[in-house]
Write a structure and sequence with these properties.
mainly alpha, Recoverin, domain 1, two-stranded antiparallel sheet, 7 helices, globular
Length: 141
């Protein structure tokens, strides 16, 4: 497991915001720093590529609107509340915007999985280093 130290706004809006030309809203730029443990490499090692993707899909199903088959603002807000997370509306919108590739304002299962990979510093920043560190599945490299 690799530990990273990120500004909180990076965790809220995603580590790759600047890669897609999006500006982080000023109100979301917080000065707090937190430690972030990237568990994805160790999960891949334990579960294999197919098991890991299956778990991402389970996470998607947990957060999605069952009638629409998408993660919507409303479904994300309700599930954050049910999970005991106090997340502001603008933070939820930022999360959705970060992963919304087709511009519909919601996340499909594919968009969610892509976002989860993008938010893993180990998988995105230096996959070769991670694969040698934890013996990650070469199918994902």
């Amino acid at each position: 497991m690799t530990s990273y130290h990120y500004p909180l706004h990076t965790v809220i809006t995603g580590a790759c915001s600047s890669d897609f030309g999006r500006q982080i809203p000023r109100e979301m730029e917080l000065d707090y720093l937190l430690d972030f443990e990237d568990y994805f490499p160790s999960m891949i090692l334990r579960m294999g590529a197919e098991g890991f993707i299956g778990e991402l899909c389970n996470g998607f199903r947990l957060l999605m609107d069952v009638n629409k088959g998408l993660i919507t603002f409303e479904s994300l807000k309700i599930n954050c509340y049910l999970l005991g997370l106090d997340v502001r509306d603008d933070e939820l919108v930022g999360m959705l915007m970060e992963g919304d590739l087709d511009g519909d304002g919601a996340l499909s299962q594919m968009e969610f999985c892509i976002l989860m990979f993008r938010l893993s510093p180990c998988l995105m920043d230096s996959p070769k280093m991670c694969s040698t560190q934890v013996g990650a599945d070469p199918m994902l490299m």
